[in-house]
Write a structure and sequence with these properties.
Layout (H helix, E strand, L loop, with lengths): L21 H15 L9 H15 L2 E6 L5 H11 L2 E10 L2 E8 L4 E8 L5 E8 L5 H18 L9
Antiparallel strand pairs: 1-5, 2-3, 3-4, 4-5
């Protein structure tokens, strides 16, 4: 019995694995980490959010409404009002015990700032809203009134229908 030697085709032969180029190693070791480090600090501290909100309120001439609320219902009211007004909450902070600041984004990608301040111990609050870079009175009023209405609905209750 004779055996025939079969020659392996070129594409099936083992090829040496190339070593990474210097450019790739430079990118991997220096450029990539330098690019990623700023991403780690994306969450802004409370005082920065408050300063941004204050600037936006002053620049756009924000809408301010008074209201009455249980302080622990503020987050829920803003979340519901944001969704009803086609906005999304991007961040929130409490720079002090009497202030809550929210950064929202509209469906048109406009920045929106909501500041809720406690003005007395009896539940009085002040809701300040600025929508967009140049202000939008209709959207501001709608958002502020929706927040105020939800706070009124929740006042003195643990829960209430969202409708």
């Amino acid at each position: 019995m004779t055996t025939m030697a079969i020659d392996t085709p070129e594409f099936m032969r083992r090829q040496p694995v190339p070593t990474p180029s210097r450019h790739f190693l430079f990118f991997l070791c220096l450029v990539f980490p330098a690019w990623c480090i700023p991403l780690a600090g994306c969450a802004a501290p409370a005082d920065t959010l408050q300063a941004r909100a204050r600037d936006a309120h002053e620049r756009a001439g924000a809408t301010t409404l008074p209201g009455r609320a249980d302080w622990n219902d503020i987050d829920a009211a803003v979340d519901l009002a944001a969704s009803k007004n086609e906005m999304a909450v991007e961040g929130s902070a409490s720079p002090n015990d009497d202030t809550r600041v929210y950064h929202l984004r509209t469906v048109g990608d406009e920045p929106t700032w909501v500041t809720v301040r406690r003005i007395d111990d009896a539940g009085g609050v002040e809701i300040t809203v600025s929508v967009g870079r140049f202000g939008s009175r209709d959207q501001e009023r709608s958002l502020a009134e929706t927040i105020r209405a939800r706070l009124q609905t929740l006042r003195g209750r643990d829960y209430a229908p969202a409708g």
